[in-house]
Amino acid sequence: MPERSHAPGIALASEIVVSSRSQKLAKYRSKRDFGVTAEPSGSARDAARARFVIQQHAARRMHYDFRLEHGGVLWSWSVPKGPSLSPKQRRLAVRTEDHPVEYAGFEGTIPKGQYGAGAVSVWDRGTWHPEGDAGEAMKTGRLTFTLDGEKLHGRWHLVRTKPQGTQETWLLFKGRDDFADDETDIIADKPASVISGRDIEQIAAAPAAVWNSKGVVPETPSSDELHALLRGLGVPLTNLDKVLYARQGITKGQLVGYVAAVAPWFLRYSADRPVMAVRCPNGPDAPCFFQKHALKGAPASIARIKVPGEHEPYMAVHDLRGLVALAQLGTLEVHTWGARVDDVEHPDVLVLDLDPDEALPWDRVALAAIEVKKLFHELGLESFVKTTGGKGLHVQVPIARRTSWTELKSFARGVAMRLEREQPRAYISTMTKHARTGKIYLDYLRNGRGATFIAPYSPRAREGAPIATPITWDELAAGIKPAAFTLRTLPARLEALGDRDPWAGYGDVRQSITAAARKAVAVR
Asked: What is the 3-state secondary structure (H, E, C) of 287-306?
């Protein structure tokens, strides 16, 4: 008898898995009309990964759905109070039907009349790792595992309790490790979705919109996929599987994918400006270096800019080709001048960097930015705000190109010093480290010739792959947190926004620093 090909065996195994999965999802499907709800039916199979997701669900009663991927489905529990970082808190977890793995990316609204009608937010997600055999642990009713998410980390336990009626009840609680915290209420402290940055109320307020995993880059794009996506750009792509952000498992390919997804937004604010790149070829945990000059052999798609007084040309990007070329070089941060390449001596933006003492709470930083906005308004200037990828904020003021670098820096210094004079216990305008305890450093030095600031929508070379993100003043006042904006989540936020730019009107602002404004902040 001739040797049998491997192909039929593989096909048979696949059929068995699909059949088993279909049986597991029968209860889930029986409760839903997929012609009405945007929830996934589970007819397609995602790539196998040990994922977990926690979805806040504003159904008849608010609760949190805790889901672990195993065997082609998501094991699911309903946790009324949500997870706690305190090992002392045992949270009730009611076992529900298995869900399709595609559900891990679902965020939006389930229509009225459908099972579980209400808003759904992806509160946290990541990967999980069981201790021992997960299937056997589920049978015995004691599952111990490690979570590596955007909010939750470390060792966790699920323990089945004695049967209560027809429901299978468990207890979810934190293991005692470095990630345990008896003081922090993680639910109250971090309410926003890790996909869209919105809270459950904001998602419910936009019932026509459904946010899901589209636009996110959860898997590593293959070389062929990226080359197809970027065909015609003429940018050679190499080492796409190299992991740059180790903890999140984010690869160079995903960085390129992110750049391609956000390019229209990025270029809107940062094209045609002298650039300084922070290159981290082996990720932020390895040595990184700054580069402002176009080195020999740099891709031709990175523009060369002659800056008076400089022997070597500066770098700039004009289009998607330039952004992809920077990503190919392992650039994890893009910083720009506050002037455009056609007139580098006259800036068109002022940036005040709010750099807080690490001990200060986020609410204090947000309030400070609003106070800065108020002062600029008094000076006749409209301002915009963005997160920096850390604990700080940038307040950005577009101006007409009539001001010299010296004049701009002097005015920015005056703004910082006025705030410091009015609230000396809250602000400081000097770099002296020992004097900054409990205060916010107002860094006006971003406004000197040759100085740079982090570009809107640039990643940062920091843990978690955060993104410097433009937001609205209303979002800031509503309590939005910068941790919501990462390389994984930002594309979905932009997809959800559609044409609604958080910095709407930025390019239409026509304003100058007047003599009256200078006088109002002049050092007396």
From this structure: CCEEECECCCCCCCCCEEEC
Contact 51, 34 (CB under 8 A): no
Contact 491, 504 (CB under 8 A): no
The CA–CA distances, whole Å, from 180 to 83, 132, 175, 289, 447 equal 12, 22, 7, 35, 42
**Interatomic CA distance for residues 373 and 385, integer angstroms:** 9
**Position 91: which residue type?**
R
DSSP string, 335-390: EE-SS-TT-TTS-SEEEEEEEE-TTS-HHHHHHHHHHHHHHHHHTT---EEEE-SS
Q: Between 101 and 212, where is the model more confident?
A: 101
Identify the pLDDT of residue 50. Answer: 79
User: In whole angstroms, what is the distance from residue 244 CA to residue 253 CA?
Assistant: 10
- 8 Å CB contact between 256 and 328: yes
Taking each helix axis from N to C terminus, what angle separates 490-497 and 252-270, rounded to the nearest 10 degrees?
40
Give mean pLDDT, residues 290-310: 90
How big is the CA angle at 263 (ends 259 and 267), to the nearest 5 degrees? 130
pLDDT digits (tens, 9 = 90+) for 213-265: 337 443 445 566 566 666 667 788 889 889 999 988 899 989 998 998 899 99
What pLDDT was estimated at residue 431? 80
Mean pLDDT across the stretch 68-91?
93
Of 391, 375, 393, the closest CA to residue 470 belongs to: 393
Using an 8 Å Cβ cutoff, are 465 and 248 in contact?
Answer: yes
- What is the separation of C-alpha 106 from the centre of its chain, rounded to a whole number of angstroms? 17
C-alpha atoms less than 13 angstroms from C-alpha of 502 in its C-beta half-sphere: 25
Better-predicted residue by pLDDT, 511 or 213: 511
CB atoms within 10 A of CB 299: 16
* Beta-bridge partner residues of 354: 393, 442
**In whole angstroms, what is the distance from residue 203 CA to residue 471 CA?**
16
Is residue 333 within 8 Å of residue 313, measured between CB atoms? no
List beta partners, residue 352: 395
Q: Is-above-0.70 flag for pTM?
A: no
Give CA–CA dist 83/73, Å, rounded: 21
Exposed/middle/buried for residue 388 (C-beta within 10 Å: 0-12, 13-18, 19+)? buried
**Chain centroid, CA 375 distance in Å:** 29
Tell me the CA distances in angstroms from 75 to 60, 100, 237, one per residue in order: 22, 9, 38
pLDDT at 281 over 60: yes
Coil, strand or helix at 231 = coil
CA distance 117 to 112: 5
Do 109 and 88 form a contact (C-beta atoms < 8 A)?
A: no
Distance in angstroms (rounded) separating the CA atoms of residues 298 and 294: 6
Instruction: State phi, psi for 53 to the nearest 5 degrees.
Output: -145, 145
For residue 2, the model assigns a pLDDT of 33
